């Protein structure tokens, strides 16, 4: 198939484009949000082709994967065909709902011309999807390998823009957790986080690394810390598990499904998370053992083959 999708979420797309199809990714001269083109920091196969809006006008497209509300209008304007009517389409929702959550209505609610795909069961439960057909296809990860060494008695945190996002990402919990062990925060917009939290840079490091260097750096840390209050299931959490890292996570959203007993510690009490951090820092053998179990659990549930098989099944159904 020729599948049209925008480069919107690099980590998720990296897994999706490992399938057997041709993936058409819009590119614009400014490489802005609606035309990023191919990823520059992720490894994508040659089957991912950049296409300009002008080229899309005559392109053969078998399926459209929409990921933002305005992409339906873009697709209709650039293709000259309407998603869901003239070309089969699915809408992929990456995020948990925001705002007045119990009554948050999805932009694609009550659509009969497309399928709404959620990446977690939690997200499908909390969005008001109306009568739209919904599916859940859980994340799949391109296995980075069992890289864990845990050589540094520090906790790795991966989050983008933790200062701006604040309570969403649990940034306010970091000072208490930094008393349990030094933290290294990886991600975009992390610069200045130590000063923002009133911590020394030794107690709270900040790193904006390219994707190719991130996994090795994470795997040097003793554990992975996930203090996020409200988000979809972070791919960095699943990547940390694939690396063989034990996880200490806030028991919120879909994390409670991913972090199984023996793979880490889940709690809604920050003091319990702090105790777990101290335990792993002081007990490297226990950290490595729980990390090995975390890796196996992640391979079993979030492996790439299962992910691609689920998408293949759904795409076949949508096109039939």
Summing up helix and strand content along with how strands pair, one would put the structural category as alpha/beta
Shape: elongated
Number of helices, counting only DSSP H or I runs of 4 residues or more: 13
Low-confidence stretches: none
SSE series: EHEEHEHEEHEEHHEHEHEHEHEHHH
Round the Cα radius of gyration to an integer and report it. 20 Å
* Alpha carbon gap, first and last residue: 13 Å
Strand line-up in the sheet with most strands:
3-2-1-4-5-6-7
How large a portion of the residues is in β-strands, by DSSP E?
15-25%
Assign a percent range to the helix content.
25-40%
Number of beta strands? 13
How confident is the prediction overall: mean pLDDT?
96
The description of the largest β-sheet is: 7 strands, parallel
Task: Provide a descriptive summary of the structure in words.
The chain has 320 residues and is an alpha/beta fold. Helix content is 35%, strand content 18%. The protein contains 13 helices and 13 strands. The chain has helices at residues 10-16, 53-56, 71-79, 121-126, 162-165, 174-178, 193-197, 211-220, 235-243, 255-258, 270-282, 284-302, 304-319, and strands at 2-5, 22-26, 48-51, 63-66, 89-93, 115-118, 133-136, 152-158, 183-186, 204-207, 221-226, 247-250, 264-267. A 7-stranded parallel sheet has the order 3-2-1-4-5-6-7. Strands 10-9-8-11-12-13 form a 6-stranded parallel sheet, sandwiched between helices. Helix 9 (235-243) crosses helix 12 (284-302) and helix 11 crosses helix 12. It is elongated, with a radius of gyration of 20 Å. The model has no long low-confidence stretch (mean pLDDT 96).
């Amino acid at each position: 198939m020729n599948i049209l999708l925008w480069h919107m979420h690099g980590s998720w797309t990296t897994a999706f484009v490992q399938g057997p199809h041709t993936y058409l990714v819009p590119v614009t001269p400014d490489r802005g949000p609606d035309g990023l083109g191919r990823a520059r920091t992720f490894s994508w196969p040659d089957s991912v082709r950049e296409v300009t809006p002008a080229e899309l006008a005559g392109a053969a497209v078998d399926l459209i994967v929409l990921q933002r509300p305005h992409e339906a209008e873009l697709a209709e304007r650039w293709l000259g065909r309407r998603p869901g009517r003239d070309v089969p389409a699915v809408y992929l929702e990456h995020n948990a709902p925001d705002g007045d959550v119990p009554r948050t209505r999805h932009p694609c609610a009550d659509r009969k011309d497309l399928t709404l795909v959620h990446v977690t069961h939690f997200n499908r439960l909390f969005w008001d999807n109306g009568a739209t057909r919904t599916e859940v296809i859980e994340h799949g990860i391109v296995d980075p390998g069992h890289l864990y060494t845990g050589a540094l008695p520090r906790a790795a945190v991966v989050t983008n823009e933790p200062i701006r996002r604040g309570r969403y990402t649990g940034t306010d919990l970091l000072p208490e957790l930094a008393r349990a062990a030094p933290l290294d925060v990886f991600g975009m917009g992390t610069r200045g986080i130590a000063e923002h939290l009133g911590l020394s840079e030794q107690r709270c490091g900040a790193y904006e690394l390219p994707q190719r260097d991130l996994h090795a750096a994470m795997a040097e840390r003793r554990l992975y810390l996930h203090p996020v209050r409200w988000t979809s299931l972070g791919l960095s959490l699943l990547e940390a598990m694939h690396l063989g890292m034990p996880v200490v996570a806030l028991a919120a959203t879909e994390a409670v499904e991913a972090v199984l007993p023996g793979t880490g510690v889940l709690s809604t009490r920050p003091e319990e998370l702090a105790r777990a951090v101290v335990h792993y820092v002081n007990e490297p053998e226990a950290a490595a053992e729980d990390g090995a179990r975390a890796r196996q659990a992640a391979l079993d549930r979030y492996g790439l083959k299962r992910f691609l098989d689920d998408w293949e099944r759904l795409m076949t159904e949508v096109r039939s």
